[in-house]
């Protein structure tokens, strides 16, 4: 599985539709302070199901919607799409026959978030399960926020174990057990 494209539309400072093409090898994003580099990484985490406004540096989830600028009105929705190439057929069960996986998350003011997986309406849970089974997702240890390394060093053993479990790809199992126990 390989992330190949991230499209932002009305997400934070990306008011106009913007594509970030993720080619083979290393992709670097450079630019002056405040140009939106961190917003790109946040868009990636958000489309994978991030639900903590603080992780998006906001007070509420709707803060990810473009809030207006001197010459532009605020938008009513934000949308992020992620394209995943599955030529290697390594996607988790249910998706391993697909050549490509497209995930879209859209948030509309006063209406919350909606997700689509390959064109079909799905629940947030379906998206987070897809990524948990693929050992990635909004909480993936591969996405390193500013200050996260020192957080990890100072973390309690239990919290540190969760990071290792995420990396080992067993967090999807935990999520299913948790849901089974609630039933
Ligand atoms: P640095 O180099 O300082 O880390 P950066 O390139 O990572 O900067 P970001 O933090 O991604 O920059 O972008 C911050 C910009 O995004 C700010 O100008 C902020 O006003 C803008 N921004 C954040 N949320 C919104 C929003 N909802 N609507 C409009 N603009 C927003
Ligand atoms: Mg930044």
UniProtKB/TrEMBL annotation:
Task: Give the superkingdom in one word.
Answer: Bacteria
Residues annotated as binding ATP are 32-39
Where is the protein localized?
Answer: Cytoplasm
Could you give the subunit structure recorded for this chain? Homodimer.
As for family, the record states: Belongs to the SMC family.
Q: What does this protein do?
A: Required for chromosome condensation and partitioning.
| Comment, domains | Contains large globular domains required for ATP hydrolysis at each terminus and a third globular domain forming a flexible hinge near the middle of the molecule. These domains are separated by coiled-coil structures.
- The protein depicted here goes by the name Chromosome partition protein Smc
Note the residue range shown relative to the complete protein: 1 to 183 of 1151
């Amino acid at each position: 599985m390989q992330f190949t494209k991230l499209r932002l539309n009305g997400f934070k400072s990306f008011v106009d539709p913007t594509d970030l093409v993720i080619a083979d090898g290393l992709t670097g994003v450079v630019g002056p302070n405040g140009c939106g580099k961190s917003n790109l990484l946040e868009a990636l985490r958000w489309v994978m199901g991030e639900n903590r406004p603080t992780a998006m540096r906001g007070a509420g989830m709707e803060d990810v919607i473009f809030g207006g600028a001197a010459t532009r009105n605020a938008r009513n929705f934000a949308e992020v799409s992620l394209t995943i190439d599955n030529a290697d057929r390594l996607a988790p069960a249910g998706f391993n026959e697909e050549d490509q996986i497209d995930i879209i998350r859209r948030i509309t003011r006063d209406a919350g978030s909606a997700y689509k997986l390959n064109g079909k309406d799905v629940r947030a849970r379906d998206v987070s399960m897809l990524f948990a089974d693929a050992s990635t997702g909004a909480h993936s240890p591969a996405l390193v926020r500013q200050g996260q390394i020192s957080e990890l060093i100072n973390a309690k053993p239990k919290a540190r174990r969760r990071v290792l479990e995420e990396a080992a790809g067993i967090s999807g199992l935990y999520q299913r057990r948790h849901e089974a126990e609630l039933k």
